[in-house]
Please model this.
Amino acid sequence: MKTILFNPFKKYQENTLLGIGIPATIIGSLLAYAFYVRFDGAFDLHFATDINLWQPFIDNSVNIAIVFLALFFLAKYHNKKTRAVDILNAVLIARIPYYLVPLLNINNTISKATDQMMAIVGDTININVAAIPVSSLIIISLFALISLVALVWYIILLFNGYKIASNAKGGLTILFFCLALILAEIITKVIIVNFPY
Amino acid sequence: MSRLPIKCPSCEQHLNVSQLSCLKCDTVISGSYLLPKLMQLPQEDQDFILQFVLHSGSLKKMALQMEISYPTMRNKLDDIIEKLQPNLSKL
Model:
């Protein structure tokens, strides 16, 4: 079970992983559209007031492409035998936990709780903490916790997939991997924010 | 049959063969012979090499039969190559 949840790349063949990763990306994009979520960065997720069907699809395509390129070049530098399909599978499968986060916004629960809170804390001079509804606090805290778990799960999957695809070892592997992810986050953010679609 | 020890339990150095005997006529040969390179590998690696040869060198076939992904299999082989040729660079 641990292998399936955190390191499916060790056991499953590339066709199986691709067969799960591509439909998961499509379903994840549809969920994002249904629950007003924009994946506006490789490791970002925000709620939107208005959304078009193609936006989550383009968001995910940009995120997948940039993370794939960053990790593929790093993996090729480390080990010339690295196959593109293994890195692509790592990126596709790793994003699955993140695709579950939009489900938390059923009936705009998170958006409503955030709006309620922002209406109170938005006035930075006279913040009336007592006026914040406890339900909003609980909903936002739970959302933050679940999002964090999903993000950690996403990165663990990505790292395990990268490690198996490239056979990278040693302490520097983690450092270079983190640098590649930071670079991917910056590039995706710049692309998605500066090219409105 | 008990497993052939390849490292000294006391100092972890590779062991040499110092005696060989014929099971039929009890002839005994003494000396100091190095173990072949493949036999210096851990048992798990030797089993992997045996399977690799039995699968005609196809990692894909091996991966399918052993229900392990192809890159995991290839990494295992790369690690064994590295053990056999410590100075061999991956690049």
Strands of chain A lie at 37-38, 46-47. Chain A touches chain B at residues 9-14, 78-81, 83, 86, 164-165, 167 (CB under 8 Å). The mean pLDDT of chain A is 92.
